[in-house]
């Protein structure tokens, strides 16, 4: 019997449902707001939530994403991704290697990897990743990163030659997401700019529209990938 088909990563806005930003708001409520705005990719990042609570939250958020037709990825924790039925996982520099995540989750799961440059992107592809999160593109306060800021020029140079779809990470917000999209990026990952908004759904709609405008401009001048 054939294995289930691996989902594709939707192009555009990639939102983070993060327990470190606006921690007083439960993760399920954050996810509900994001999905109400039409979010198509939700990464669930739980750095402060105790493990049992994290598993319960992951199951709730994954179920909500599936009902909404959105892809849900779990940050770092391959075990939670597996137990919650998430579409996949995103791993970073200090997490389980991509090839091990792939071995545990199987061929039908999406695996994303945080990278800092082109050589890292090539290594991620060899390890079985489906896409990379490249950055920081801009300065960010959501997460402390021991890597230099790429800027749009450095980011665009990697996007043009990356063997995998590239999602821009680090400091992406409404004011710059269209510029990021214009580089030909597959997506733009946003955390604080959406989670700190008074109306999460409306912020998602505005961010998505801005990304789409930037991506359309890139395709018109032949810069899309």
UniProtKB/TrEMBL annotation:
Residues annotated to bind Mg(2+): 76, 95
Gene3D superfamilies assigned: Aldolase class I
E.C. numbers: 2.5.1.3
Swiss-Prot/TrEMBL GO biological process terms: thiamine biosynthetic process; thiamine diphosphate biosynthetic process
Chain positions recorded as 4-amino-2-methyl-5-(diphosphooxymethyl)pyrimidine binding sites: 43-47, 75, 114, 143
Free-text comment on the cofactor: Binds 1 Mg(2+) ion per subunit.
The UniProt record lists the keyword Metal-binding: yes
GO molecular function, one term: thiamine-phosphate diphosphorylase activity
Catalytic activity: 2-[(2R,5Z)-2-carboxy-4-methylthiazol-5(2H)-ylidene]ethyl phosphate + 4-amino-2-methyl-5-(diphosphooxymethyl)pyrimidine + 2 H(+) = thiamine phosphate + CO2 + diphosphate; 4-methyl-5-(2-phosphooxyethyl)-thiazole + 4-amino-2-methyl-5-(diphosphooxymethyl)pyrimidine + H(+) = thiamine phosphate + diphosphate; 2-(2-carboxy-4-methylthiazol-5-yl)ethyl phosphate + 4-amino-2-methyl-5-(diphosphooxymethyl)pyrimidine + 2 H(+) = thiamine phosphate + CO2 + diphosphate
Coiled coil (residue ranges): none
Keyword Metal-binding: yes
Cofactor list: Mg(2+)
List of residues binding 2-[(2R,5Z)-2-carboxy-4-methylthiazol-5(2H)-ylidene]ethyl phosphate: 140-142, 171
UniProt domain Thiamine phosphate synthase/TenI: residue ranges: 13-193
Superkingdom of origin organism: Bacteria
Keyword annotations from UniProtKB, A to Z: Magnesium, Metal-binding, Thiamine biosynthesis, Transferase
One GO cellular component term noted in the UniProt record for this chain: cytoplasm
Pathway: Cofactor biosynthesis; thiamine diphosphate biosynthesis; thiamine phosphate from 4-amino-2-methyl-5-diphosphomethylpyrimidine and 4-methyl-5-(2-phosphoethyl)-thiazole: step 1/1
Pfam families noted in UniProt: TMP-TENI (PF02581)
Function, in words: Condenses 4-methyl-5-(beta-hydroxyethyl)thiazole monophosphate (THZ-P) and 2-methyl-4-amino-5-hydroxymethyl pyrimidine pyrophosphate (HMP-PP) to form thiamine monophosphate (TMP).
HAMAP family xrefs: TMP_synthase (MF_00097)
NCBIfam families assigned: thiE
Homology family: Belongs to the thiamine-phosphate synthase family.
Record protein name field: Thiamine-phosphate synthase
Protein's organism: Archangium gephyra
């Amino acid at each position: 019997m054939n294995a289930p088909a691996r989902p594709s990563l939707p192009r555009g806005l990639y939102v983070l449902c993060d327990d470190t930003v606006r921690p007083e708001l439960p993760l399920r409520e954050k996810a509900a707001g994001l999905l109400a705005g039409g979010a198509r990719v939700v990464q669930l990042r739980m750095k402060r939530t105790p493990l049992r609570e994290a598993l319960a939250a992951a199951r709730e958020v994954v179920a909500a994403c599936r009902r909404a037709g959105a892809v849900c990825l779990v940050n770092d924790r391959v075990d939670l991704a597996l137990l919650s039925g998430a579409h996949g996982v995103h791993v970073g520099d200090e997490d389980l290697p991509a090839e091990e995540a792939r071995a545990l989750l199987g061929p039908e799961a999406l695996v994303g990897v945080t990278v800092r440059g082109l050589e890292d992107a090539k290594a991620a592809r060899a390890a079985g990743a489906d896409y990379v999160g490249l950055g920081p593109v801009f300065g960010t306060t959501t997460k402390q990163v021991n890597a230099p800021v790429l800027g749009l020029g450095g980011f665009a140079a990697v996007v043009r030659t990356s063997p995998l779809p590239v999602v821009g990470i680090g400091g992406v917000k409404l004011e710059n997401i269209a510029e990021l999209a214009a580089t030909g990026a597959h997506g733009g990952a946003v955390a604080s700019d959406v989670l700190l908004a008074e109306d999460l759904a409306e912020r998602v709609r505005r961010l998505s529209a801005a990304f789409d405008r930037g991506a359309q401009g890139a395709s018109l001048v032949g810069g899309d990938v």
